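Sat 14:20. Reprocessing the chain from the morning session after the first attempt stalled halfway. Input below, unchanged.
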Amino acid sequence: MKLLIIYPYCLEARVHEEDISIVPMGAYYVAALLMENHYDVEILNWYNFSREDQRIKDILAEKKPDVIGFSVLHANRWGGIEIARMAKQVNPNVKIVFGGIGATFLWEHFLTHFKEIDFVVIGEGEHAFLNLVKCIENKDHEQIEKIRGIAFKKEDKVVKTASAEFIHDLDELPIPAKYFTYQHVALTRGCPGNCTFCGSPQFWGRKVRFHSSDYFVDQLELLYKRGVGFFYFSDDTFTLKKDRVIEICKKIIERNINISWAAISRVDHISEDILYWMKKAGCIQISYGVESGSEKIRKQLNKNIKTDQIKKAFSLTTAYGILARAYFIYGCPGESWDTIQETIDLINEIKPLSAIFYILDIFPGTALYADFKKRTKENFPFTEGDRGNFDDIWLKQIEDILYFESDPHLSQEIILAYGKKLRTTYYESLYRFADEIELTDNKELYMTHSDFLSKLGMTFTHGDYSQIEAIKHKDKIAERLYQKSLTYYPDHRAYLGLGIIKQKNGEYEESVSILSKGIEYFPDSEPLHMCSGISYMNLGKYAEALPYFLKLRHSKDAAYYIEQCHKALKNT
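Finished this time. Tokens:
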């Protein structure tokens, strides 16, 4: 029996492809459990396909799946529907199963309106999907009705079975890394928070379940040995259990798993001990949901964090040389220029070195959506025939509903103005935030402090910030960060970055001096030698330049410069 799990393309293109390019972790867990039960399973990441892509039908015809499971978020539901239609055209007998958070909250909608969809797995899907596959394989239709956590069509009616129980011991699940390679991992399922814009509480429940530290680190080790060096710890709040986090960090260090990673946390679940061990174990970034500088807005969103907690978390995180990223939401209930200014004031106090700004969205499964349905029940612009089912709004080719569209006190014009003000003010302040970084004076962390500062510097000259026009004096910011980096520890990136900046400014003697110091510490560095040779050439010192290029004879770039040096020396 051949099984495919497909992650479909989204309805709308993204500026930042990484936002939609990752297969959700749940798909790997589902596939791993099927593999453990001796099924032939493939995961296909089709985020970059489109409805016009002929490859879809060709691949489906080639692989001949008996069952296709779709990992459905809200944004890619139409991609799933379109691929399902193509699959039925290729093979009318293939069984189509939708699962994931998007399917869980719209199961009745999908089964009512889309004949291509045979089943929906609701909620945590590993065992429900496995049991469904077994019944399909055995053609045991009576047993299908006994499977908990699914919905399906029966005699033109939509049937939902009893809810599935949560998996109490997550370690019972096979480690997906035994079969697949990926970068997103999770220690937990669930979140104790109850934010109005988030579907996690209703999907996972507010009681948080944990993998053991050994399970989690075993997974990292398997992937690390396969060549994965960077990870996203994708938990809603990775740091909920301080002792477990520190235990994981110590195990990463003890096993010599030399990785770097980013995590998500809450400002009220962070401490110096946690940050120290996370930094030692390779953490380079922590994202915090700040949402707003206005306590009134945060209360509206049921984000129960205090301003003092936000300030403390950002100060400590930066002090340990970890990039503190802030998530902000604007266009919220009660938003005004005063609350936007409160957010700007908070940004200026916490000095985040990375910030993401979102317009408030309304999605099924959230408290905001329930409130939206209640507020618009009588006057939502459906046809008369559709008025009885509010979820029929999702028959439109839309990914989401923006909150401001339902609030008469807000407009698209004002929302765009809020966003422009927030982003412009943030980018204009970044130079100051970078200059005012204060790191904890712990000699044990000096090497990682140096690395942190040089990476941040490179972001301004070669990374994401280098492309943003609103950020002024990028080279100056980077230069100061590189110089500060070298006060802690010799850092290859800092020497190279400084050398390039001096070279770009025509300060070739200074460039040579800095790069020479770098070569003393990193004698085998190709970039340092290449950059040194080019600086000498710009000084007209071809004899001094040539030895740097000769060390790189195998390089095509070096061969060009060797030839140019020989020509110049021949003509002198």
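The first helix runs from residue 25 to 36.
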